């Protein structure tokens, strides 16, 4: 019995030490936007923790004009994903590095139309959560955020 207790304590101590080490020595980098008009935004476009990249949500906004693209949910979905691709490219990543997507729709009735565009881009099929909420930024129909791994 003492050997079993000793083994359990050894495993628990090892796990604690590994977790503590990871938390203390994982560098966290908060990146400003690569978009000049978003340099003073109150959030980071990307936060890097080790080899993981957490991207801020993107809507279907044309970054040059800072207006939503016209054409409804499918056009906004395409633009949001293009915006994600642009942010990923700044860190030598692609959509293939994405492991998790969170999708917020203004209207859950747009799910099928959104998904038609989404599946054209995310061919690796990252994990995904999709839900609807009212009041997205800039009256957008969709917002997508992702987590990528390098």
From TrEMBL:
Keyword terms of this UniProt record: Hydrolase, Signal
SUPFAM superfamilies: YjgF-like
Molecular function terms, GO-annotated: hydrolase activity
Residue stretches spanning the membrane: none
Matching Pfam families: Ribonuc_L-PSP
Annotated signal sequence range: 1-22
CDD domains cross-referenced by the UniProt entry: YjgF_YER057c_UK114_family
UniProt family annotation: Belongs to the RutC family.
Annotated protein name in UniProt: Rid family detoxifying hydrolase
């Amino acid at each position: 019995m003492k050997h079993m207790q000793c083994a359990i304590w050894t495993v628990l101590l090892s796990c604690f030490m590994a977790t503590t080490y990871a938390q203390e020595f994982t560098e966290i980098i908060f990146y400003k936007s690569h978009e000049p008009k978003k340099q003073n935004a109150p959030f980071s476009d990307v936060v890097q923790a080790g080899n993981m990249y957490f991207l801020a949500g993107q809507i279907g906004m044309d970054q040059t004009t800072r207006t939503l693209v016209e054409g409804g949910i499918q056009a906004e979905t395409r633009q949001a994903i293009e915006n994600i691709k642009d942010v990923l490219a700044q860190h030598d990543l692609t959509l293939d590095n994405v492991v998790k997507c969170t999708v917020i729709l203004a209207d859950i009735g747009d799910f099928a139309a959104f998904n038609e565009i989404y599946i054209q881009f995310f061919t690796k099929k990252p994990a995904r959560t999709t839900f609807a909420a009212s009041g997205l930024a800039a009256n957008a129909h969709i917002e997508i955020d992702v987590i990528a791994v390098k």
